[in-house]
Amino acid sequence: MEIVDKIRAFGLRLLARREYSEQDFREKLLKKFPENFLIIDEILAEFVTKNWLSNERFCECFIRDQKLKKIGPLKIKQKLYEKGVGEDLFAAKILQNFSVEEQQELINYLEAKKLE
């Protein structure tokens, strides 16, 4: 099996489990195949072109997951920034996913939790 096929198969196995940001996906591939960074960049571009890998989809899933854990929008922004998601993308997605009422509920929850 050719190295390109091995890297592509590994990437598909990763994406079968969950969504990844482009930066996280690249780091995972580089950790497994450190000497093949040019091939990894080509595969990354292929996956993005075929819409198998999407920062937008990752961002939506990540925000939804963090909301369930009662994580606030500022902390989510910080985590998304660390994962290489562009500020314009995550700012728009956070605004879509956190209404004023939801933010107030989260503030009330965190205040009550802190007072316990």
Kindly, what is the distance between the CA atoms of the first and last residues, rounded to a whole number of angstroms? Answer: 58 Å
> Helical stretch count?
7
Low-confidence segments: none
Mean pLDDT: 89
Estimated helix fraction? over 70%
Structural class: mainly alpha
Q: Name the shape in a single word.
A: elongated
What topology emerges from the helices and strands here?
Elements: H1 3-17, H2 22-32, H3 37-49, H4 55-68, H5 73-82, H6 87-97, H7 100-115
Helix pairs in contact: 2-3, 4-6, 5-6
Commentary on this structure:
There is one protein chain. The protein is elongated. The chain has 116 residues and is mostly helical. The longest helix is centred in the C-terminal third of the chain and has 16 residues, at 100-115. The chain has helices spanning 3-17, 22-32, 37-49, 55-68, 73-82, 87-97, 100-115. The model has no long low-confidence stretch (mean pLDDT 89). The chain starts with a helix and ends with a helix.
What keywords describe this structure?
single chain; 0% strand; 78% helix; mainly alpha; 7 helices
